[in-house]
Amino acid sequence: MKTTAKLLLTVTLMSLAVTLKAQDASPLAEAREAIARYEYSKAIGLLDKALESTKDASEIRDLSLQKARCQKKMLRYDAAAETLASVMKPGALDVEVAGELADCHVLSGRLDDALGLYSILSMQHPDNLYFSIQKASLLFKVNDFRGCAEEGKAICAKDSIPSILSLIGASLLKMGQVDSSLAYYRKSLRLNPSNPNTAVSIANILLGKKDYDGTISLAKGFIEEIEDNLTLTQILGVAYYLKEDQDNAYEVFKQLRKDGDESYGTMYYSGLNALALNRFEVAQDCFEAAWQIDSSDVKLAVNYAISLARDIQFRKKDGVIIDNTAKAIEMFGKAFDMAEPDPVLMYKIHSGLGRAYNAKSDMAKALPHFEAAYKYNPEDISLLVSIGYCHRIRKEYKTALQYYEKYLKLGKEGTKNYNFAKEEATFVKSELHMLE
Questions:
Q1: Judging by beta carbons within 10 Å of its beta carbon (0-12, 13-18, 19+), is residue 84 exposed, middle or buried?
Q2: Sequence-ordered alpha helix ranges (H) in 246-362
Q3: What is the three-class DSSP state of 314?
Q4: Measured between alpha carbons, how far is 338 from 291 in angstroms, rounded to an integer?
């Protein structure tokens, strides 16, 4: 009897456990288990079942919030927004639902809708810094820089947050208030001195203000004391170059290339720096690398051509004879085709082509380029000597003499060009005398 009673009790308890488990295995409970396993698609279906089985407004709200959060996890932002909007009620704003809905709008790119909700939330809850921070961030994204700066300043009056100080700095910079922008970026960096993005922003502003010493000091200090930062190292090299401290610039750019930086900016400025130091082969290699990245920059084409034209010689490279003269002419031609009527660029192109053809003793082609260069830049009186020389080689002595004499009136005595023009003028006069 005792054994039978014990068996019946066991069966009863097992039956009760099964019943309790069946009762507990509701759609909501299963949805929670699915969420715990990151099975969000399954959880959404189960939450829909739970929503169908209830008419309680409070329960519908909570289930909808859970469903919307699962939809967001699945990147279904518009669907999540619809779920949340379905439980929004007119009148007092449900903070949790409105906050989730605003976040959905941000994630789906509906920034104006998100800004509207965060503006209302921050107005209703002025002490909630999260809402104010979201509003400030959105104001910047929709290009309301004045509004962003004002909202940011109101936030920092309550709590000095480095990222908000930087956001104010960025807004002021967009508005053209460079000095005020710099002040806010500096405040941000003081509070968070290890933030490389803030340091880069300050360095770029200083570079734009031509404060090269300030740029160098900031970049070097950050790189040496905090971390080696690629962008700041690039800015450091540019600052040295613009300051005309070419030796230090060369070392920075050389290290960048050694470390594998093959970006357009590094290659372009490496080329400019090497060109300034008359390291023509390095300049050509760097300009060629930059040209492979972007062959649409006319300034690159001009400087590449200049590096070739100033290195007119034949040399072997990887067993192949390089004709710099021909390549210089080719690059100047490309620059000419690309150039807009910019007097400075056109002067550089024509004078470079003139010198390149002059090196090949092709005065017929050199002459028109020297003449064009002089029209674009009549302050370069050395071109008068080049034009005169082209005419002299072509035995056009009267014209040659006119250009030499014009130069001698403008040139400085004792200079190399002056002495050459004087000697040429004497020679031309003798030739004219012989022809009489």
A1: buried
A2: 246-258, 264-276, 280-293, 298-309, 324-338, 343-359
A3: strand
A4: 14
Single pTM value for the model:
0.76
3-state secondary structure of 382: helix
Q: What is the C-alpha separation between 368 and 117, in angstroms, rounded?
A: 67
Alpha carbon distances (Å) from 393 to 263, 285, 363? 46, 35, 7
CA-derived radius of gyration, the chain: 37
The pairs formed by 208-212 with CB atoms below 8 angstroms and a separation of 24 or more are 208/178, 209/178, 210/242, 212/239, 212/240, 212/242, 212/243
- DSSP annotation string for 17-71: HHHHHHHH--HHHHHHHHHHTT-HHHHHHHHHHHHHT---HHHHHHHHHHHHHHH
pLDDT in tens, 400-414: 999 999 999 999 999
Contact 424, 392 (CB under 8 A): yes
Element holding 152 (H helix, E strand): helix 145-158
CA end-to-end distance (rounded Å), the chain? 153
Are 219 and 227 spatial neighbours (Cβ–Cβ below 8 Å)?
Answer: no
Is residue 162 within 8 A of residue 191, CB to CB? The reply is yes
Report how far apart, in Å, the C-alpha atoms of 75 and of each of 41, 69, 107 are: 11, 10, 9
pLDDT of residue 1: 47
Give DSSP secondary structure letters for 315-332: EEETTEEEEHHHHHHHHH
